[in-house]
Design goal:
5-stranded mixed beta barrel; disordered N terminus; 2 domains; BirA Bifunctional Protein, domain 2; OB fold (Dihydrolipoamide Acetyltransferase, E2P); 9-stranded mixed sheet
């Protein structure tokens, strides 16, 4: 089969528009890429022949995958001339042979081979085929048959141009060779890379399974504001904007937590949201400023109940996506079979760092941070230094799914104090493949304690712009009364990374954030 362009790489595609301008008549500037100029010439040839290269619609009666399934029993050389099928898709390969040609088209379901003889086509259809290029979107009608070499194909009696393209595709068999072009021009990646398409099909199904799991357990899916007058629910720097009509500053959501808790106060006992969060922070293999988070809240439960529910949900997603709870991620075994390991913050430091943080002075903790390679320039709050030690000394060892429990009070302003140690809170963070994949609490519902914690956070904002701001309306809700509640956040993108065997968040987000060119 003919390759998609013969020599155009991802870099060539990205630069193909450089210097291209189009005059009012539709003719291309002389600096236009020669491949684009040739495709444009063919487009105008079709128009000159009275053929619209951009018709409004095309009736389809079959997909590529459906044809393969239905006619699998055809023998080599056998056809079904009484069955007229209508298919459409993007031309990916072609092989002219005099007055005949084989070609492949690709639709969302897959690819199928077509065959035609020009003398069997009408004059407009012949003109459409003669002005055809790789990448054009076409429609065809004909009967199914199996070639003598064994490939199920469509013998065309009609051939229609549905969209004459101008931009050449990347080379068919290598796709986009430029990584930046892959993310910046996702449409080209999806056209040329079947594996990439399947990742995003899998992502969609994973999110559907999340909804199905929670719906089956009686949860109500809700929506909370993307634009908020006061951001909260996480330690993060927000994106901000200005609403002209109300003349007020608004923030993009960093978390739906405080709104979802209002719904628990209002009497909805099981709620969840699959939502976009926005955090104005760095970009790396597991962070994107815009990301997808699942949060759910369940009245009359605590973090112990939610640990069990969290591991059951993830195990369900593994079985639905991978067929098992044990599989390989990046060539290494990982086992999500419940129950997962439970590891307290203090026990983790004791096991992997080899010392006890209880009883150490703040100065000693700061010294240990420095020994472990921390970039802290001066002592921070005690709990922050404990978690700095944990991050440096323990997290690199957490490959198998592990619930990290019982965090310092100072870093968890929305969480109930631990029932056996008031210096800690009832919180867990699930880890897998060296990544934090969630966060959960026994939610704080003591109004006086919550007010005191938020006052402490407000005071910290002088030196820490990520500290939780005061939210009087949220406090009003807590004053109204929230039942004992377990709340959970799950990082959808990171779960998708693991279940699709991807190492970068940019490979499982269709349009990752990139610097504007």
């Amino acid at each position: 089969m003919e390759k998609a362009t013969g020599k155009t790489t991802g870099k060539a595609v990205e630069g193909a528009n450089e210097g291209a301008t189009v005059e009012g008549t539709g003719s291309a500037d002389e600096r236009e890429n020669p491949l684009r100029a040739e495709k444009r010439r063919k487009m105008h040839a079709l128009k000159a022949a009275g053929i619209d290269p951009f018709p409004h619609s095309f009736e389809r009666t079959a997909s590529a995958a459906a044809v393969h399934r239905e006619f699998e029993a055809l023998q080599p050389g056998e056809g079904k001339e009484d069955r007229v099928l209508r298919l459409a898709g993007r031309l990916m390969t072609k092989r002219p042979m005099g007055k005949a040609a084989f070609f492949n088209i690709q639709d969302q379901s897959g690819a199928i081979q077509g065959y035609l003889r020009t003398e069997e086509l009408s004059e407009p259809d012949r003109a459409a085929f003669e002005n055809l290029d790789i990448g054009d979107i076409v429609g065809l009608a004909g009967f199914p048959f199996r070639t003598k070499k064994g490939e199920i194909s469509i013998h065309c009696r009609e051939f229609k141009m549905l969209c004459k393209t101008l931009e050449p595709l990347p080379e068919k068999y290598h796709g986009l060779t430029d990584v930046e072009a892959k993310y910046r021009h996702r449409h080209l990646d999806l056209i040329t890379n079947e594996a990439s398409r399947q990742v995003f099909v899998a992502r969609s199904r994973i999110i559907a399974e999340i909804r199905g799991f929670l719906n089956a357990r009686g949860f109500l899916e809700v929506e909370t504001p993307m634009l908020q007058p006061i951001y909260g629910g996480a330690a993060a720097y927000p994106f901000s904007t200005h609403h002209r009509a109300l003349d007020m500053k608004l923030f993009l959501k960093i978390s739906p937590e405080l709104y979802l808790k209002r719904l628990i106060v209002g009497g909805f006992e099981k709620v969840y949201e699959v939502n976009k969060n926005f955090r104005n922070e760095g970009i790396d293999r597991s962070h994107n400023p815009e990301f997808t988070m699942l949060e759910w809240y369940e009245a009359y439960t605590d973090y112990n109940d939610q640990m069990k529910q969290f591991e059951e949900l993830v195990a369900h997603l593994c079985r639905a996506s991978k067929g098992a709870t044990k599989f390989t991620y990046q060539g290494k075994d990982i086992d999500f079979t419940p129950p997962w390991r439970r590891l307290t913050v203090h026990d983790g430091i004791r096991e992997y760092a080899g010392f006890e943080v209880e009883g150490m002075t703040d100065a000693m903790l700061f010294e240990k941070c420095g020994e472990l390679g921390s970039d802290l320039e001066k002592p921070a709050a005690r709990g922050e230094m404990v978690m700095e030690i944990f991050e440096l000394a323990v997290e690199p060892h957490l490959w198998q799914p592990t619930f990290v429990l019982d965090h310092p009070l100072e870093i968890s302003p929305l969480t109930k104090k631990h029932r056996s140690n008031p210096d800690l809170v009832e919180r867990f963070e699930p880890f897998a493949a060296h990544m934090e994949i969630g966060n959960a609490y026994s939610e704080l519902n003591d109004p006086e304690d919550q007010l005191a914690r938020l006052k402490e956070q407000e005071a910290k904002r002088v030196i820490d712009e990520e500290a939780q701001p005061m939210d009087d309306d949220f406090l009003h809700a807590i004053d109204t009364g929230m039942p004992p509640t377990g709340g959970v956040g799950l990082g959808v993108d990171r779960i998708v990374m693991i279940l699709t065997d991807q190492t970068s968040i940019r490979d499982i987000i269709l349009f990752p954030t990139m610097k504007f060119k």
